[in-house]
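As a warm-up, study this chain.
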Amino acid sequence: MSILTVLVKFLVTVTICEAMTMKQIKSTGKMMRKSCQPKNNVEDEKIDPLNDGVFIEEKDVMCYVACIMKMANTMKNGKLNYEAAIKQADMLLPDEIKEPTKAAITACRKVADSYKDVCEASFYVTKCIYKENPDIFFFP
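Now compare it with the structure written out below.
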């Protein structure tokens, strides 16, 4: 077996493993969405654009974001649960987006402090995280 064959097999294996990790994250996101979307009576057309940085400032969208963040245990008592968010990033995210995600969370950790409403706080924290690093942003 040539070194090239070994290298190609290694790269294919690594690529598949990373893709499966993101696939699992997206699959979990779909389950969360199936729970939060009907609770907040929000249409796909309003929440699909979140991944492209389009944040529609309407209560149903904001509360959908809050629902997802509560399910992920990243919002607590109307504030960003910073320690939990960092811990989850460490445990769950693929290596290539782990550090940039933690940097974005850290940069946005105080945003929620400006809002009394949990829906608004969640929404603006999420929007901040997107702005910090749109390339690694994913929201169910």
